[in-house]
Every structure is written in structure tokens, then in C-alpha cells.
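Here is a typical protein record:
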Amino acid sequence: MKLAKLSLAAIVVAGLASSSFAADTLADAFKNGSVNGELKAYYFSKDDGSKTEDLFTTGVTLGYKTASFYGLSLGLTFQGNSSPFADGAVNDTPALRTGGKGMFQGSEYGTGAQLSEAYLAYNIGKTTAMVGRMFLDTPLVASSGSRMTKDSFEGAAIINTDLPNTTLIAGYVQKGQDRTDGKGSIGKFTKTFATGSADPVPADDGAFTLAAINKSITGLTLTAAYAYANDLIQISYAEVLYEGKVGAVGYNLAGQYYYNKFDNAIVSPGEDDSINAYGLKAGASFKGINGYVAYSKVSNDNVATGAVISGLGNGADLLYTNPVINGANYGADVEAYAADLNYDITSAANVGARYVETKDKSAAITEKVSFTSVYGYYKFDGALKGLKLGVEYEDLGKDKDGNDLWVKAGYKF
């Protein structure tokens, strides 16, 4: 798992690469803009140990970006979806949720349309600034595209690559758009931020983030990031990743560390004001065969969240021991082990399996949960170039029962 895709960095590169195609007039900036999009169809099935429900959803993403006009550009992205055969009902009370609507109301079932990106970007030299609604992919503030609707943010961000082999990021977000609104509709922009590891964070005064990624030493990537949701929580993250090769064998070694510090105003008597987690990972690859083993541990501090908050946005979810579909490793006093083995059959096809085992020692009786997953992906070429299919299946074992099946089809244009 790479730390962050850094889509902001991609914008910088795109801005530099397209400078020769900059528009001479404002009208040309709009005429020479680019359109992209994706048509999607997802089928989710879930057995929670007591009942099985499913949901079929179709969706569209449509984006437009103007050509550069004296360094300025405008970006727009529209998302919409529908679940035509969904049954049951959503409800604020979990026990009253029924059918596919109730089972997936917090993560996948949320029909409707939303303008998720509407930003102005300005590029000068090796610096790009953005303001408005945007998808972000930084270590601690990040969007996730694993569900039908990709979550988004409203705010401002700036990225700079002037220092050799170094990327610097600063940002402020005042609102977040979750995947759904939890009531059956697509997510709306509110002063509450989804997290990749715990309950949403209500931040009336927004949140700031800083990040630095350095690759000065060949094979070594150093990452440091910080986020502060005003008057609520400070989140710090660090990672050391080394990638090397011996003959035809590639290898990587990595370590990560999370630290949460809660403001005194929200800490109740008897609660701790901080919690931390760390992870270790070792991987190898050989002629298309890839694998890794990983370990993570969360401290046993008694905090109101009951878990480490890994960041803001569903994409801020970087723990090495994450299962393929579910996530249960950020809880206080949780220890986890993971092993993954996958094979690149061709450059377009990949199949794999992952096993994760967690031990939750926070209660009087230690709870153990295992996640056994198989997955496969295929990217078409030729006349069907742009079409991708994916299948993921995950079975829960030991002290919990259940399973999940995700089937995804997407066509990008």
C-alpha cells in the first residue's frame, strides 16, 4: 500500500506539462477544456451474522477542467447514482434498519446527485493553489473511491515541489461531503468529517493539515503529516518506507506511527487525552508474485472515541493491517496481523488472497476476529479499453460470523 497518491501533485505535473497548451483567451480556456468521466455498476452483498442483504447501484461521474489561462483553471466534477431495486428502509436506530437500504445506509446506499468538485486552481512555477470543493489525497485528509460516491472536501490547499525530491502540502477544509447522508440520499457538504477509522468528527471551525514527503535518498521515502480539527483533536502521522531490489527480487520495509491528542475541552473525567498506534510491514515481489506481512498495535488508552482517528475523510486509512473490505484495527488495545499474496497474471489481471487476524483486549474477555479475503481485478484493452472489473470476497471468523461480497464494474472515458 502506497502512503498517498497525492492527486494534488498530479495537478502540479499536469499544469507544468500543459503550459504549452495554455489558452490565449478566456473563451479558449473553456473551449479547450477536457472532459472525463466514469460509468459504474456495483453489487454489494453482506451477511452480518444474523441476516443477509444486498444492494445494486448504478452511477456516473462526469468531470470537466478548463485549459490553463495565465495559470488559472476551473475544475468541476458531478457525481450521481441510483439503486433501482433497493428494498427495506433506513432508520437512525440500527435495530430498525431493514433490507439493503438499512444494511448499507451509512456507506453505499445514498441516491441522488452532487457537485462534488468546483474549484479554482492557480499554478505558478512548482506551486499550485486550489480553492473550492475538491477531492484530496493527502496522508491525513483524503477522499476514498472504494464506494459508489467518492467523498470530497470544501476548502483550500497548496502544494509545492521547489525543494529537491520533496513535496510540501498545506490545506484547510471547512466542510466535508460523506458518501451518504445516512438517511438514504447522497452525501451533502456539512461541518462534519468522515474518518477512515472511527465515527464522524463534528468540526464547526474546520480543520488544518500539513504534510511533507521526501525522497532524497534512493529507495527511501520519509513522510510526516499533521492535522488539527479545531478545539477537538490533533492527529500526527509518520512513515519510513524503503524499497530496494536484489536481482529480480524486489523488497520493501516500512514502519508507521499515529498519534492522537484530544483537546481538554472534550475529555471527560477518567478519560485519557491521547492514544497512539504503530505498524510494521515487510514485502517482496518476484516476476509478478507479490506479498507482504504486517503487524499493528494500538495503545490501551481510554479515550472518548474508543479508537485512533486515522485522519479526516474515508481515504485517510493507511494502517498496514487493514482487511480488503472491512476495517477493525484502530480500536484501543487492538493488535493485528496481516499477510497478503497476489499474482499479476498479466499487466491487466491480478488475483490475490489476504488474511488478517485481530485481537481486541480492551474488554474483560479478549475478542479475536479473522478476515479471510480473495480478490481479483481485470482491465480490458482494445475496443473495451477503459473498462475494469473487480471482485472481492471476505469471510469473518473466530468470535464473529459474516461475509461480504463486492462486484464492481467501471468504464472510464
User: Anything to note?
Assistant: Confidence is low (pLDDT under 50) at residues 1-5, 12-20. The longest strand covers residues 34-47. The radius of gyration is 22 Å.
